[in-house]
Amino acid sequence: xxxxxxxxxxxxxxxxxxxxxxxxxxxxxxxxxxxxxxxxxxxxxxxxxxxxxxxxxxxxxxxxxxxxxxxxxxxxxxxxxxxxxxxxxxxxxxxxxxxxxxxxxxxxxxxxxxxxxxxxxxxxxxxxxxxxxxxxxxxxxxxxxxxxxxxxxxxxxxxxxxxxxxxxxxxxxxxxxxx
Length: 179
Fold this sequence. Notes:
By secondary structure, the chain is mainly alpha-helical. The chain has 4 helices and no strands.
């Protein structure tokens, strides 16, 4: 390429332009035109070389894309059992945490709630098993169950006392009205 450019430059510069005659002006125009054709020819050769290289690059890129796709698919296939296990483990832990949150929710009833409602909640809590099925949450669940039972028993005692006092007061009022 450098040799061709040097030859074209040397030939172009060796001509002495004569602007005084029509023939001299035509010679300059002809020389400029031949330089432009040389430029087009060299540029075309460069484009052709580029096209060949682009075709090779595109072929390499296509192979790279295929390799990435196949290896991504293989990675997903190999990792699927682990992903499934992790998903199941997350669901298991979420289930335990949800059950534990319900067990720890002692605000469902209080001492002002009806005794029957407290008995129902207390029975539900007492029916909850806190054995090995709780896995690593077993100790926490057992402690939460015990705390909830203590709280609900205290609420039940207070509610029964309140209801008994209300019944006694109603009986006394009825007796007073009778008298």
